[in-house]
Prior knowledge:
300 residues, alpha/beta, Rossmann fold, six-stranded parallel beta sheet, three-stranded parallel beta sheet, 10 helices, 42% helix, binds NADPH dihydro-nicotinamide-adenine-dinucleotide phosphate
Amino acid sequence: MPEANIIDGRAVARQVRAEVRAAVDALTANGQRPPSLAVVLVGDNPASLSYVRGKVRASEEAGIKGATLRFGADIAEDALLAVIDRLNADPSVDGILIQLPLPAHINAGRILARLSPDKDVDGLHVTNAGRLAAGQVGFVPCTPAGIVELLRRTGIPTSGRRAVVVGRSNLVGKPLALLLMSKGTDATVTICHSRTRDLPCISRRADILVAAIGRPNLVTSDMIRPGAAVIDVGINRVADPSRKRGYRLTGDVDFGAARQVAGWVTPVPGGVGPMTIAMLLKNTLRAARMRAELGARSGR
Ligand code: NDP
């Protein structure tokens, strides 16, 4: 059997980012200010710092004004709520992103609930989660949206196909399952989690298998149907003394083994990760357009 095709998330993300850039240029040529994104970063978690840097850099490359608001890990919850209130009320801010995780003394649910749903470009506010569940228009979390875009642009059919999503988080697994089953995408979806019995038996039936678990190499070749599309969401740091940083990044899928069985597979890094950022830019552009339309309707 030939080796699986590798889905190049970096290349697809580049396309999406170029489209966003062109749309932003069209907006500004029309006299509108560039879209703007405020990223709220609490503490100094190195992974969060690096994600935020990547998001702000990508925003700027797309012509979006990106600003990082940094706070110490000891910021009080009420002070952070006041920051959100200020950003919600600021007409020069289109999108707000709260970089997770937040320190343990802060209730992340309370913080996310305070965001204006119309600026919630990460799609994590319950209003946007509800809109997705109800099939209404809203902001969709960037990683699941990026996965569906990746499938679509790679030409992997979803309609009527069996999709198995391993992981049921609010950030990835749950919204992805909803997107895959939504009208127009039309997959038949099964969701698995840590209590699922006989996972290999279920995953082997998947035409599209998504691993959003956070356990390195959990998905092995015996869990994959020959020819399936395997989407690896996991980002795990595995100790590797031969690397300068002392670790390497690996996914939830045993990539080498999956290549021998699957039809398509995403690498880590370079698969789903770049799409997450590209979709954040798309959502921010959408937030800016919504604000401009509202402004035009209210005569502002
Ligand atoms: P969570 O920890 O919130 O969720 C993990 C899910 O995996 C849970 O539903 C859990 O089940 C399930 N799980 C854990 N162990 C097993 C197992 N042995 N068998 C089956 N299911 C299992 O993680 P996230 O959803 O936030 O993230 C998942 C991974 O994706 C992480 O590695 C994260 O770093 C990565 N990620 C990557 C992104 C990207 O841009 N590429 C963006 C976001 C996340 P249960 O609910 O029962 O506990």
